[in-house]
UniProtKB/TrEMBL annotation:
Transmembrane annotation, as ranges: none
The protein, known as: Baseplate protein J-like barrel domain-containing protein
InterPro entries (alphabetical): Barrel_Baseplate_J-like, Phage_Baseplate_Assmbl_Protein
Domain (Baseplate protein J-like barrel): residue spans on this chain: 94-169
Source organism of the structure: uncultured Spirochaetaceae bacterium
Pfam entry (one): Baseplate_J
Length: 354
C-alpha cells in the first residue's frame, strides 16, 4: 500500500518514547548500547523507504499497478467506463386529459425506483407513453417489456396506480467497468496506441465508448463500396449472457469524435438462438458430461462467433467431443448448417438431450 506519512510532531513523540524505553536514562546502567539503538532506528527507516520504493516500482507498469494508481496514471488516455443508467418507456393509463407530472416516481417489483423528468398528458385512448429513468445506475435497473411499475409518489388525479413497461423495455443500465477490464483496455491501448482509422480501430473505439459494449466488429462496404462501414456492437459474453446494446447513438457519437471523416453506422445485431439436439453414448450421458459439452459449446461461440458467420454441425460435433470424457457425439441443428447475416449473431439457446 502507499505511504501514509504521520505528522512530524507524532513521529517526534514516538521516537522520543522509543529512546526513553530502550536507554532508560534514569537507570544507573543503560539497558542497550546506544549504537545498537541508533542502528535499529536507521534500519527501520530504511525498511520503510525500501518498501515504498518497491511499491512505487510496481506502479510504473499497468500490468502490476494497483487499481487507484492505474486509473490515476491512465485516465487521461484511456477513459474509465462508469455505470450507465437505464431508461425507457412505460404505458400509463388514466382518464382522458389527466396529467402525469414531472417528478412522478415509480417502483418496480424488485424495489428499483424510476422517475419522470417531463410532464405527460393522457390521450384520447386513455393511455400515455411516459419516459422514465432509473434512479440507480447498473444492470439491475433494467426491466423487460410487460413488467409492472407502481406509483410510489403522490398519485396524480385521474391516473391509475400502476403502469406497464412498453416495448423495448427499460434498458441501457450497465455496471461500472471492473479493475481488470480497465487494465486489459490499457494494455490493449499500449499495444495499439496509434488509431487513425485503420482496420480494427473502429471496433476498438466502440469498445472504449461504453461499458455496455464488450464485443465489436467492422464490416466494410455493407451499404456500398465508397467507404461506408457498419460497426456491430454487443455486450456480455456467452457464459453470463449476450446482450444487445441499447444506446448505439452514444457509441456512434463517441467514435465520431475520434475517427477520420468516413461514413459509418452503428448497429446491435439480432440474437439468433442455436438449439442443437445432442445425443451422447449411454455410458457417457451424465450430468457432468452434459455440463462439459455445454461449456465447450459456449467457449467455441465466445471465440469464433461473429455477425455473418456460418455455424456447421460438423464443427460443433468436433467441439463437443474431447476424446476422453466424451468420445462420441451425435448432434443436429434444425435446418442443418446455419448461415447468419451481418445483422445476426448466434447464441446458444436450449440444448435438447436425446
Amino acid at each position: 500500500m502507499p505511504l501514509n506519512r504521520e505528522s512530524l510532531s507524532s513521529l517526534k513523540e514516538k521516537t522520543y518514547s522509543n529512546y526513553m524505553s530502550l536507554l532508560r536514562p534514569l537507570d544507573k546502567t543503560p539497558r542497550h548500547n546506544i549504537l545498537k539503538v541508533l542502528a535499529l532506528c536507521e534500519a527501520g527507516a530504511q525498511h520503510q523507504l525500501l518498501g515504498d520504493i518497491d511499491f512505487l516500482s510496481e506502479q510504473l507498469f499497468p500490468d502490476t499497478a494497483s487499481s487507484d494508481y492505474l486509473r490515476m496514471h491512465w485516465s487521461d488516455r484511456v477513459a474509465p467506463l462508469y455505470a450507465g443508467t437505464a431508461a425507457g418507456t412505460a404505458i400509463q393509463k388514466g382518464a382522458q386529459g389527466s396529467v402525469v407530472p414531472a417528478g412522478t416516481v415509480y417502483v418496480s417489483q424488485s424495489g428499483k425506483r424510476y422517475y419522470t423528468d417531463t410532464t405527460h398528458k393522457v390521450g384520447n385512448d386513455g393511455t400515455v407513453s411516459v419516459r422514465i429513468y432509473a434512479e440507480e445506475s447498473g444492470r439491475e435497473s433494467n426491466l423487460d417489456e410487460g413488467e409492472e411499475l407502481a406509483i410510489s409518489s403522490a398519485i396524480p388525479t385521474g391516473v391509475e396506480t400502476k403502469a406497464t413497461v412498453a416495448s423495448g423495455g427499460i434498458a441501457g443500465g450497465t455496471d461500472a467497468e471492473t479493475d481488470e477490464a480497465y487494465r486489459n483496455r490499457v494494455l490493449l491501448y499500449q499495444r495499439n496506441f496509434s488509431r487513425y482509422g485503420k482496420p480494427g480501430d473502429f471496433a476498438a473505439w466502440a469498445i472504449d465508448s461504453s461499458v455496455e459494449v464488450t464485443k465489436a466488429w467492422e464490416i466494410k462496404g455493407c451499404y456500398g463500396v465508397f467507404g461506408v462501414m457498419l460497426v456491430i456492437v454487443l455486450g456480455g459474453n456467452h457464459f453470463d449472457g449476450i446482450n444487445r446494446v441499447a444506446n448505439t447513438d452514444a457509441v456512434r457519437d463517441y467514435i465520431r469524435t475520434l475517427c477520420p471523416p468516413v461514413q459509418f453506422t452503428v448497429r446491435s445485431p439480432e440474437l439468433v438462438e442455436l438449439n442443437p439436439a445432442i445425443r451422447l453414448l449411454e455410458d457417457e450421458d451424465t450430468v457432468s458430461n452434459r455440463e462439459r459439452v455445454t461449456t465447450r459449446l459456449k467457449s467455441y461461440l465466445e471465440s469464433k462467433a461473429k455477425p455473418g458467420c456460418t455455424i456447421k454441425e460438423s464443427t460443433l460435433k468436433s467441439v463437443c467431443a474431447d476424446g476422453f470424457f466424451v468420445t462420441e457425439v451425435k448432434l443436429s441443428i434444425d435446418g442443418g448448417d446455419k448461415q447468419f447475416t451481418a445483422f445476426q449473431y448466434p447464441v446458444l439457446g436450449s440444448v435438447r438431450w436425446t
